[in-house]
Amino acid sequence: MKFVCIIPSRYASTRLPGKPLADIAGKPMIQRVYEQAAQAQKLSAVVVATDNPKVYDTVVTFGGKAVMTRENHINGTDRLAEAVEQFEDVDVVVNVQGDEPLISSDVIDALCHVFEENPSLDMATVATPLLESEYNEPSAVKVVMNRKGEAMYFSRSLIPYPRNPFYGTVKPYKHIGIYAYRRDFLLQYAKMESTPMETVESLEQLRVLENGYTIKVIVTNHQFIGIDTPEDLARIREYFAKEHMK
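Below the sequence we write its predicted C-alpha cells.
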C-alpha cells in the first residue's frame, strides 16, 4: 500500500499573514512541518500543496517537494484534492496541516497502519485527551467516539456534556486536524455539497458523518500546538527556544 503526505499551505491568513514562512528558531514554519512529517516510516513522499510562489520556492530551496494549486480554493480539502490528482498511483493520502510544527511522525505512521489493517476504511483522524482549560474553548474541537473507535460527532462545544462527572473511560477528547483518506474517497468527498451541521459548527469533517460515512479515530497522548494567531506563534517559538537550551 502506497502512502503520500500532502501538506496544504495557504499563504494568506487573516489572523497571521504569511504564516507558512513565519520564522521558528531559524526555519520557516512550513519547513518545520515538512521535516516532522518526513520522519514517518510508512510514507513514500511528502509534498507541500501551496497557492503562493514564495512558499513553493522556500520548500524547493530546503530540498522539499511542492506543487502549485489554485488560489480560489474555499478549504484545504479542495486544495488537497487538486494536488492528489498528480499522484494517481497513491492508495492513501495523509493530510497534515501546514501550521502543526510539532506533528508526530509516530501519529502519521499509526494512521497509515489502520488502513493496512482495514482495507475497506475510507477515512481516519486523530484525537488526544482534552485539557480542562480547553473545555469551553471553541477553537479546541471536541470529538466523541463509539466502542469501535469511530467518530460519532465533532463539536466546538464540550461533548459529552458532564451532567454527571467524567469517570472511567468516559472522558472528553480533542480532535487533532490530521486526516488520512483513501484516494478515491478524498476525490469523492471534495465533490460533496456542504451539509447543515457542517455549516452550523463550521467543521468540514461533519460532512462525512452527515452523508453516512465512517471516520476512524485513533487516540494519542501527544500534545500539539496549532498556529492560528500571533500568540500561538509566540508560544511555539518559546517552546523551541526551551528545547534548544536542553
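The chain has a mean pLDDT of 91.
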